[in-house]
């Protein structure tokens, strides 16, 4: 078989497996959140984007809609809608500085911190798994792989 065709077939298989794994990991993460948050019914189902908004707010001080949108690559309009949902779910709260009543910032509630911590542990486990997977490759192979992934993800 043509080498390009072999790579294409492997790539399609890889994408399908990643999609399946992603769905499974997402379900496991949401199950852990559900079992850890006592008032989960109020929180309800969380999207991955909502989790990433919580992560962004949890990592920085004085986070506003513009900052979040720039960091996670979503429109400000979408972030505005997501932050409203997260406030209704009791995961985020908004605040303003005394000397600047115009700008609105966000911070995590205690439940939001708990959800974010679970999400952070999840990401750490994924990172550790990837490092273990990459241990089988030489530095030269990893450099080549990094080049391929960079070129494949450039816009």
From TrEMBL:
NADP: present as a keyword of the record? no
A GO molecular-function term, please? DNA binding
User: Which Pfam families does the record associate with it?
Assistant: MarR (PF01047)
Q: Does the keyword Transcription apply?
A: yes
User: Ranges for the HTH marR-type domain?
Assistant: 26-154
Keywords attached to this entry: DNA-binding, Transcription, Transcription regulation
The record, for SMART domains, names: HTH_MARR
Q: Which PANTHER family match?
A: HTH-TYPE TRANSCRIPTIONAL REGULATOR PCHR
Q: What name appears for this protein in its UniProt entry?
A: Transcriptional regulator
Q: What is the lineage of its organism?
A: Bacteria, Bacillati, Bacillota, Bacilli, Bacillales
């Amino acid at each position: 078989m043509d080498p390009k065709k072999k790579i294409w077939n492997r790539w399609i298989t890889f994408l399908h497996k990643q999609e399946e794994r992603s769905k499974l990991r997402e379900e496991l993460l949401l199950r852990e959140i559900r079992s850890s948050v006592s008032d989960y019914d109020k929180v309800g189902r969380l999207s991955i984007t909502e989790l990433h908004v919580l992560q962004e707010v949890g990592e920085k001080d004085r986070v506003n809609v513009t900052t979040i949108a720039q960091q996670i690559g979503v429109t400000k309009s979408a972030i505005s809608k997501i932050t409203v949902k997260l406030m209704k779910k009791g995961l985020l709260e908004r605040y303003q500085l005394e000397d600047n009543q115009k700008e609105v910032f966000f911070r995590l509630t205690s439940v939001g911190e708990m959800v974010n911590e679970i999400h952070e542990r999840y990401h750490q486990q994924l990172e550790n798994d990837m490092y273990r997977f990459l241990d089988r490759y030489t530095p030269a192979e990893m450099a080549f792989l990094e080049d391929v992934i960079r070129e494949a993800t450039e816009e």
